[in-house]
Amino acid sequence: MMGYTRSPYRELEKAIGYKFRKRKLLEAALMHRSFRFENDDITTDNQRLEFLGDAILGFVIAAHLYEKFDDKDEGFLTSLRSQTTSGKVLAEVAAEAQLGKFLKMGRGEEQSGGRERPSNLADGLEALIAAAYFDGGLKALQKIFKKLFIPRIESLTGDVWADNPKGRLQEYAQRKWKTGPRYRFVEKHGPPHAAVFTVAVDLPGGTCGIGTGSSKREAETHAAMQALCKLNVVPDTGKPEGTLDV
């Protein structure tokens, strides 16, 4: 009788509410770029899956909100979707599922706290969502969405822009100028496994905010917060650039 080998990802699959049929897809979703940089035989990471997962999650959440809040206008739905898909919320959801302990990353990234870094958790969750789509289609997405995001949406109250500078800036710009902000990549420096990105956000009249971060998403969030402070939409907390939780 052959022995049963327990999947090393069983705990994670239980936490997200979905069991992968193709383990390679799950492993690809958990492959942080730092691991590829430290291993010459690895030629890919989870960044492409993360790009797709971002779009997929936005669609699934938008469809759910459209059906759930049939008496709300577009502005409310956009606000709620932005809050639910913010980097901070995604990182919190990923942390609750203990996704960080399953990420495959380089030693340098791990030693610097990479398993708890919000941007790594958010990106890993989006990559996992894309991998689940390839593995099980919409049914797989619905299982993960029900397990991870429905409780989060049900608990949302008060200011739908809370902890979401990009969403708040988007809403403000649309209301004031009938156009959204434009995020512009400025530069990237540092070693590949610990790169620092700089992004500027432009509004009618010129550049309104500049932010840095360990990912473009984080830099955009910091840029949006700086813009909101300059526009007096939110009070300036006096925190140095780069200290915003995302």
Number of strands: 3
Helix content: 40-55%
The CATH topology label of the largest domain is Ribonuclease iii, N-terminal Endonuclease Domain, Chain A
Low-confidence stretches: 238-246
Question: At CATH's second level, what is the architecture of the largest domain?
Answer: Orthogonal Bundle
Q: Give the mean pLDDT.
A: 87
How would you describe the shape? Answer: globular
Beta-strand proportion: 5-15%
The CATH fourth-level homologous superfamily of the largest domain? Ribonuclease III domain
Quickly give the structural class.
mainly alpha
Q: Kindly, what is the distance between the CA atoms of the first and last residues, rounded to a whole number of angstroms?
A: 50 Å
Number of helices: 11
CATH class of the largest domain: Mainly Alpha
| Main beta-sheet annotation | 3 strands, antiparallel
| Rg measurement, Å | 19 Å
Strand order of the largest sheet: 1-2-3
